[in-house]
Amino acid sequence: MYPRKLTRSIISNPDYPVVDTPKGKIRGLWEEDVFIFRGIQYARAERFHLPQEIPAWEGTKEAIIYGPVCPEMHTPIAHDQYNVPHYHYVQDEECHYLNIWTRHIEKGANKPVMVWIHGGGFATGSSIELYAYDGHELCDFGDVVVVSINHRLNCIGYLDLSGYGDEYRYTGNLGQADLVAALKWINENIEAFGGDPGNVTIMGQSGGGCKVSALLQTPSAVGLFHKAVIQSGLFEGFKDVTKEQAAELSKMVVDELGLTDIHEIETIPYYKLARAAQKAEQALQEKYGFGMYLCPVADNDFYLGTGMNNPFMEEAKNIPVLVGSVLGEFDQNYNQVYAEGSKNFWDDEKVWELLNKAFGNKAKEIVAAQQKAYPGFLPVDSLYINRGCRVASRDFCKKRFTEGCAPAYNWLFTLESPFNNGTVAWHNVEEAYMFHNANYLEASYIPGVSEELQDIMTGAWVSFAYNGDPNHVGMPLWHPVDASNGSCMLFDRKVQEGLHHDDELMEILPAKAIVGNNDREPLSTFGGGPRQSL
Amino acid sequence: MYPRKLTRSIISNPDYPVVDTPKGKIRGLWEEDVFIFRGIQYARAERFHLPQEIPAWEGTKEAIIYGPVCPEMHTPIAHDQYNVPHYHYVQDEECHYLNIWTRHIEKGANKPVMVWIHGGGFATGSSIELYAYDGHELCDFGDVVVVSINHRLNCIGYLDLSGYGDEYRYTGNLGQADLVAALKWINENIEAFGGDPGNVTIMGQSGGGCKVSALLQTPSAVGLFHKAVIQSGLFEGFKDVTKEQAAELSKMVVDELGLTDIHEIETIPYYKLARAAQKAEQALQEKYGFGMYLCPVADNDFYLGTGMNNPFMEEAKNIPVLVGSVLGEFDQNYNQVYAEGSKNFWDDEKVWELLNKAFGNKAKEIVAAQQKAYPGFLPVDSLYINRGCRVASRDFCKKRFTEGCAPAYNWLFTLESPFNNGTVAWHNVEEAYMFHNANYLEASYIPGVSEELQDIMTGAWVSFAYNGDPNHVGMPLWHPVDASNGSCMLFDRKVQEGLHHDDELMEILPAKAIVGNNDREPLSTFGGGPRQSL
Asked: A4: which chain B residues are within 8 Å (Cβ-Cβ)?
């Protein structure tokens, strides 16, 4: 989605490249070995209703520009805009579009399909939100078909109106229903784009990982995917929103809007709905604690509740999973004290002042455990090490094993980036490495190191998509997690398998707030955020 | 602003690169030979008030991410999103930010400063709207300091409320006042970024060209710039909005909003203001004809009225200008019939059917004149040749000469792009060539050809910035326009100076509607545009 420095003309003509799908012809473009189809509509939906198949068409539809993305309730400049460049785009409730990168447009190529489900909680983001999501390099490197999906989010994707009539029965899971519709489209159409509908890997990071996790517990998705990747998408202590909370939230929204007929909610302007939903969600956060309340509801036959706290769905136990996280995640927000210098150059006094402030009388013990787990790292890095995603990912893999599921592989991305004289790996950074886009991520790129690591990581993701096993000849042996091996592949300058490498540290490291302590100005030099938020 | 494929780590640390400006320190980043400073605040302003200087600050401000852009009244997917990739970003009324690319951060380097003023009429766009605007390559190629500016637009930049009190005297020109404030900031600060405040070239395309043209008639801008480039920014028959029309428009807005006190207009939500302004502008278009009505008002001492219809401002007569346009401009929208094939492959019958439809009994004569003006082109291309910008640019240069101004150089970009088996040069396409970004423009790139042409064009723009003369050793001799030479540099596979080359054609070619005849579906396959426009 970013412009590449081209060495050959792109080809996009009325008759090439054109793919003949069951519903009609679609024209894309051919860019240096990769065919790209942007903005293919996979469904359409009225607000608060299930997605419907699109009718067949005459002639050729163009798929050379991205489709609109789901409206966000609020779009400020992200505090991590430098570390994780965000690509903004036009927002529209008609957002049922997907993008395809492939090296083949003939049937029979049968390449593995790697489907990217974006993050941003269940509230924000899109298939093209982050530059890292561009599928060209992954497609080219792995000879796989890459697909990325937009779907409904926030108050139009997860507002549970089921209490207002049977026609709204699934409203708490519409965003998920969109994803299922997209997977169904892939199942029925991807062969024409060189993909194998019998070998579909779904992948997601952060909120996208939550969505993948939820799809593993979604009966209507059974058979539509065959492997799953969860990246920083599991959180220690996570609980699904309860049916009661969801009803409480939607009642607040409906009351706030002062509707005389519930059906009015289907046509009122989006921003009014969003403003009411923001207010209601804030009220719930004050009442029940920080968290997401517009997210999949385990209240009916659509979604069985997170596999973290519930038995894994029987029909998905045969799905191998690749589950991991990043060393710093949100906790590296500590790093935002860089206005006062670079962490790696702080003197011992400052480091221990911060460590003592963060960990109290446990500081020495934590640093000792951290030094054991990560011998090459500095004591100061203890400040930035994430617990929530790490523990949840590790335990999820073990639970998969315990319940007799297909293999679960656990990993952790720990590479320090050069930004600011050294920055602990942050939430989202690994995406550039498994998408083979590390050369494009300005805050993280290290000559030689990034190329080698992305070859290994992208290679592992691709191997997993091909075989359900991430092992390949370019990396050390990687064991699936069992009851006792404590395996975790560590991605860094040196790639190595850890065995219980951080058990001791995780035993004593406290959880930090998901958005870490941050008592400095936001990353930007300005106020940030639209003056009138929606 | 797009991610480049990196071969070296970017450096951005607390102490490097840091520039010491008169008001305080600013930290940017260093990316392969070029220092980049994004989102530097040059002023701040309350709504409907003149921009104010920002106060000095302690410590170091970061300038590593872009500042917000001005809110747009409506942001649909552009119909030309493929040919002219648009980069969307967070919108905020606090949009007084500029970006700098430079190879030097020491005083005394004294490099020419090339300031980019974006297009989008006076209503939309931003300093980072188009990928072509990325200043890295231009800075690196020409060893110049590149600056690009955000400023207020549409109903917060050009709504003339002067009838509502002296405090609102300049409201019809606030967007222009922001530009003057930015030029003042450059004048006072650019030396610290290696620039020469005594050699500033302002450049703009489309609406940006209109703004440059207006700044040539703006007394408060005198001395703040020294050369001017207008690209597809002059339109045959253009008239400034009259004082009466501006008053009529603002009265409609105020009435529509039902304000009890005019000051309420300073705090009502932007989208309410925008909706009222949209309605009012539409009413004026119905009454007075298609055009922009939220644009600089020549009603007071701020702006003297367009130089097309008024005497050139005495104090700006010493400014050399580089003025040109593109062969197809808006008229290439005809090309959107490509769903029915490629123009270059249509048979004679179809071509002449369209020619006759467009030109009636003048068709043969027009094609004969077109073949004489552009010997390598096909008759079908007559359909796409623009008159409005071409004639206005030519005549503007001649008027500069006639009124005794500094040299005016005229040019026309005519390169056919490979998109769709051949597409006549469209509005905006030349930006990638004068910014040395042609390798990144997927719809236009031709191996070898694009590199050579962008070297010549960027070289000419850079030479003009250095010397006020675009001539350089890599291109044929280029004469400034005089009373009779009819000079026009033609940028194509072969670069050559035309002398009266299209006089005959322009004599008979009719003007077409600015947004050309377009009776097919929009370029996208979907509805386009937010369901609820602001």
From this structure: 5, 440, 442
Any CB–CB contact under 8 A between B530 and chain A?
yes
Tell me, letter by letter, the H, E, C secondary structure of A274-338: HHHHHHHHHHHHHHHCCCCCCCCECCCCCCCCCCCCCCCCHHHCCCCEEEEEECCEHHHHHHHHH
Is some CB atom of chain B closer than 8 A to the CB atom of A272?
Answer: no
pLDDT tens by residue, B73-109: 888 888 788 999 999 999 999 999 999 999 999 889 9
Cβ distance of A90 and B76 shorter than 8 Å? yes
CA distance B333 to B4: 31
Nearest-Cα residue of chain A relative to residue B273: A532
Q: How far apart are CA A528 and CA A120, in angstroms?
A: 18
Q: Which domains does chain B have, with CATH numbers?
A: 18-239+301-319 (3.40.50.1820), 324-508 (3.40.50.1820)
d(CA B19, CA B101): 13
The kind and range of the H/E element at A166 are: none
Residue of B nearest to A269 (CA): B532
3-state secondary structure of B410: strand
Q: Mind spelling out the 3-state secondary structure of B17-68?
A: CEEEECCEEEECEEECCEEEEEEEECCECCCCCCCECCCCCCCEEECECCCC
Nearest CA in chain B to A271: B532
Whether B19 contacts A20, CB under 8 Å: no
Q: Please tell me the distance in Å from A454's CA to the nearest CA on chain B.
A: 14
Rounded CA separation A205/B145 (Å): 39
Asked if the interface predicted TM-score (ipTM) of this complex is over 0.90, the answer is yes
Structure tokens belonging to residue A431: 């995406």
Contact between chains at A342 and B13 (C-beta distance less than 8 A): yes
How many Å is the Cα radius of gyration of chain A?
23
Are A462 and A142 spatial neighbours (Cβ–Cβ below 8 Å)?
A: yes
Alpha-carbon distances, residue B392 vs B122, B233, B237, B245, B410 (angstroms): 19, 9, 8, 24, 11
Provide the residue type at A347 as one letter: D
Q: List, for residues B391-413, the tens digit of each pLDDT value.
A: 999 999 999 999 999 999 999 99
Judge whether A115 and A70 are in contact, CB under 8 Å.
Answer: no
Tokens 């302590």 correspond to what residue?
A: A517
Q: Which two tokens stand for residue B531?
A: 């369901």
- Chain B contact present for A39, CB below 8 A: yes
